[in-house]
């Protein structure tokens, strides 16, 4: 099993290319199942979650053509409506996104309950509620979701009690082939949702309001060949912005979009970090001291839960104290004991963490527990005195393309060893 050996205390300087968004790519890959016409996706990140999703598409009979590290043409013309196996879907939660396309196209789908990082329950009930509102009959059988609509789906009104990015994406994809109009209320507003809508519109769908709380989908449109470029990854951009901040460095993040990180940018500026747009992306720099800042994770446009662990790592060396409140997932503080091994002073209080900044972190052996927790340990190690060994870095490779190599090019001292 691979691990990273990191010698801390080096200031990062240079340029980092931000990859396409993993969380935008996954539903767009699933969307290829809706149509029998080819869909070409570009700017895909070369990470293991994408590779697993493409393998799942091949399981359904989708042909993968013109494949490179960052693009692929998916042709679902000969797709088969078969059962999604547990061995594939256990690896990540995003496999639930095939349920809506399969049901809409074939009238039936049977998909194993999804897996992924152990950061909370993350129930699929909102996905099922959306499909039920479109006329589907749902049953849970031996760990499988069995969805049926033999006469096809019918447009309807879907009202989410809380915004859910995945459920909103399921609703949009299913509604594209449903008869009539579908209204999705209290929809998730994330850029990834709007990007999926743009991809579906390129395929021939008619969707209005994506990126707002109310989305209208006119179902039944004829779908055809399409080409779509995936948006840049705002979580990756936020991670490297924090890497510059925690090392007192200076990084240009090419391809990053400040409008996708407004709340994060405000929090960083309050902490003493400078962040501004350039003609190529974003510039992030810190020369003065870090200040403790309170944050709360929220659905977009708030601070994303996927950046909570990274921001906590930053606050471990800030002056004063900061309160970090997690409102999205109930079990997303598993990085706290590992940060404490590096000398961080963190007190958990239910869904909040009180972080008292320390003068210095010191290297130690730490263990990654999930994707975002693992990168928070890397960030802390960059600022720590001495050597840190981050174990189980396969979590990192699920969502970050060449993280260690990108950091090394900017001055970090990192070795990947078996």
TrEMBL record:
Chain positions found as 2-(S-cysteinyl)pyruvic acid O-phosphothioketal: 117
Binding sites annotated in the UniProt record for UDP-N-acetyl-alpha-D-glucosamine: 93, 122-126, 306, 328
Pfam families registered for this protein in UniProt: EPSP_synthase (PF00275)
InterPro entries: Enolpyruvate_Tfrase_dom, Enolpyruvate_Tfrase_sf, MurA_subfamily, RNA3'P_cycl/enolpyr_Trfase_a/b, UDP_GlcNAc_COvinyl_MurA
EC category name: transferase
Active site feature: 117
Binding site for phosphoenolpyruvate: 22-23
Any one GO molecular function term: UDP-N-acetylglucosamine 1-carboxyvinyltransferase activity
Pathway: Cell wall biogenesis; peptidoglycan biosynthesis
Limits of the Enolpyruvate transferase domain: 7-407
Keyword terms: Cell cycle, Cell division, Cell shape, Cell wall biogenesis/degradation, Cytoplasm, Peptidoglycan synthesis, Pyruvate, Transferase
This protein's record includes keyword Transferase: yes
Function per UniProt: Cell wall formation. Adds enolpyruvyl to UDP-N-acetylglucosamine.
Similarity field: Belongs to the EPSP synthase family. MurA subfamily.
Protein name, as recorded: UDP-N-acetylglucosamine 1-carboxyvinyltransferase
Lineage, opening ranks: Bacteria, Pseudomonadati, Pseudomonadota, Alphaproteobacteria, Hyphomicrobiales
């Amino acid at each position: 099993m691979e691990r990273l050996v990191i010698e801390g205390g080096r200031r990062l300087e240079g340029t980092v290319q931000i990859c396409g968004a993993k969380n935008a790519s996954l539903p767009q890959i699933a969307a290829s199942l809706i149509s029998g016409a080819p869909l070409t996706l570009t700017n895909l990140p070369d990470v293991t979650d994408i590779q697993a999703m493409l393998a799942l598409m091949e399981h359904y009979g989708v042909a993968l053509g013109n494949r490179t590290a960052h693009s692929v043409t998916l042709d679902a013309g000969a797709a088969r409506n078969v059962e999604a196996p547990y061995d594939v879907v256990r690896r990540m939660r995003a496999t639930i996104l095939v349920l809506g396309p399969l049901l809409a196209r074939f009238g039936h789908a049977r998909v194993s309950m999804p897996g992924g990082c152990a950061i909370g329950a993350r129930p699929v009930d909102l996905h099922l509620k959306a499909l039920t509102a479109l006329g589907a009959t749902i049953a849970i059988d031996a760990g499988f979701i069995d969805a049926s609509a033999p006469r096809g789906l019918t447009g309807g009104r879907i009202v989410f009690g809380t915004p859910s990015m995945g459920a909103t994406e399921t609703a949009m994809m299913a509604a594209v082939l449903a008869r009539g109009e579908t209204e999705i209320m209290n929809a998730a507003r994330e850029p990834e949702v709007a990007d999926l809508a743009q991809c579906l519109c390129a395929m021939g769908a008619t969707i209005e309001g994506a990126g707002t709380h109310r989305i209208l989908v006119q179902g039944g449109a004829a779908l055809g060949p399409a080409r779509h470029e995936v948006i840049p990854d705002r979580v990756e951009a936020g991670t490297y912005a924090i890497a510059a901040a925690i090392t007192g460095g200076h990084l240009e993040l090419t391809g990053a979009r400040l409008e996708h990180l407004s709340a994060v940018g405000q929090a960083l500026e309050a902490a003493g970090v400078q962040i501004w747009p350039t003609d190529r992306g974003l510039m992030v720099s810190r020369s003065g001291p870090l200040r403790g800042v309170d944050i709360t994770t929220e659905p977009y446009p708030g601070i994303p839960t996927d950046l909570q662990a990274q921001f906590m790592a930053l606050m471990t060396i800030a002056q004063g104290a900061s309160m970090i409140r997690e409102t999205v997932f109930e079990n997303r503080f598993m990085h706290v004991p590992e940060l404490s091994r590096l000398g961080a002073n963190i007190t958990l209080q239910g869904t909040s963490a009180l972080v008292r900044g320390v003068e210095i972190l010191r290297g130690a052996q730490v263990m990654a527990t999930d994707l975002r927790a693992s990168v928070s340990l890397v960030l802390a190690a960059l600022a720590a005195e001495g050597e840190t060994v981050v174990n189980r870095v396969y979590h990192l490779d699920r969502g970050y393309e060449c993280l260690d190599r990108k950091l090394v090019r900017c001055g970090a001292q990192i070795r990947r060893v078996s």
